[in-house]
Every structure is written in structure tokens, then in C-alpha cells.
Amino acid sequence: MPDQNQSPAGGQEIKSDFLDELGLAGVSQEKKEELLVKMTEVLLKRIFIEVMEKLPESDQNEYARIIEGEAEPDKVEAFLKERLPNYEEMVKNVIDDFKEEMKR
């Protein structure tokens, strides 16, 4: 997962690099943005599924209450890091797997 202290421009560069890796350098900016939105949705769903598989049921219920209450992303992430010691590694693995899948 990219460094959270990274500038938005740096994050955009990473996204652009990823699309280029997939051979999409020649695609219009509008189409790239559309693809990035869809890919982000897929990644978020995969991360959610992975989190739910790893959290004990009592933590799943608390997590559901947190996200239903529209908690800030920092609070959600702090909760997950506390409950899943390997949370960041898990997210990185989901992203890496997705990247490899997209390159096929």
C-alpha cells in the first residue's frame, strides 16, 4: 500500500505507472480514470473479504458497527491494525495478487 504521507501527485504517478505496466499507456485519461475506479472497487471488496475471513466473529460485529457508523478511514484502519497484527502485509498481498492477476 502506498505511503500515506505521499503527496497526491505521487499517488497519481503510481496509478499511472500501474496502468502503463498493464499496457494501457495509450488509453485516454478518461478511460484510465474509469478503470482505476473499477480496480479500486475490486481491491476494496477483496480486502474487505480478507478482513472478514481473518477477524473473529466478535470483532466482525464491532467492525460492522464501525463502518456502518461512517467512521473515518483512520479509525477503521487503527481498529484493523489492532485486531490483525499483519493487516498491512495482508493488504499488500491482496494488492500484489491483484496486480499479477491483471497482468495475465
Q: N- to C-terminal separation?
A: 21 Å
State the helical fraction.
Answer: over 70%
Domain tally: 1
Q: Which sequence of SSEs, written as H and E, runs from N to C?
A: HHHHH
Number of helical elements: 5
Number of strands: 0
**Spatial shape:** elongated
Point out poorly predicted stretches: 1-11
The description of the largest β-sheet is: none
Find the structural class using helix and strand composition.
mainly alpha
Could you report the average pLDDT, rounded to the nearest whole number? 82
Any idea what the radius of gyration is?
Answer: 15 Å
- Percent of residues in beta strands? under 5%
Verbal overview:
With 104 residues, the chain is mainly alpha-helical. It has one domain. The longest helix has 26 residues. The radius of gyration is 15 Å and the shape is elongated. The two termini are 21 Å apart. The N terminus is likely disordered.
Structural topology:
Elements: H1 8-21, H2 29-54, H3 57-68, H4 73-83, H5 87-103
Structural descriptors:
mainly alpha; disordered N terminus; 5 helices; 77% helix; single chain; 104 residues
Concise synopsis of the structure shown:
With 104 residues, the chain is an all-alpha fold. 77% of the residues lie in helices and 0% in strands.
